[in-house]
Amino acid sequence: MNEVIHMAFGITITPWKLIGYLGVALFAGRWFVQMYYSRKYRRPVVPTVFWLMSISGSLLLLSYFIFGKNDSVGILSNLFPAGVAGYNLYLDLRHKRSRQDAEATSSG
């Protein structure tokens, strides 16, 4: 996974770097998704996909820093956000499920 795929402008691309770049794109892109939903609903909104992108990006970056680079700073800086995003996703899904149950009870 550390073999060079491409070199351009002094940047060496390896499969692990592609995983890292994808993680960065997901982790950073979640803010654009959040901004889109907030503009759409004209209030601050954090959609479920935000948490999914957070977890995915963090796990990809963790993989890169654990297996590709072996960098403890990168590991620690992505381990905490992955845990927080996982907990928030759990709360989000639990809230949606309880709301659906309440709607089903009130309508039936």
Describe the protein.
There is one protein chain. The chain is mainly alpha-helical. The protein has one domain. Helix content is about 80%, strand content about 5%. It has a two-stranded antiparallel sheet. It is elongated, with a radius of gyration of 18 Å.
- Major beta sheet summary: 2 strands, antiparallel
* Average pLDDT for all residues: 92
**Number of alpha- plus pi-helical segments:** 3
Instruction: Give the % helix.
Output: over 70%
Q: DSSP strand (E) fraction? A: 5-15%
Count the beta strands. Answer: 2
Strand neighbour order, sheet with most strands? 1-2
> How large is the radius of gyration?
18 Å
Q: What class, by secondary structure content?
A: mainly alpha
Order of helices and strands: EEHHH
- What distance separates the N and C termini? 56 Å
Which spans of ≥5 residues are poorly predicted at pLDDT below 50? none
Q: What would you call the shape?
A: elongated
Can you tell me the number of structural domains? 1
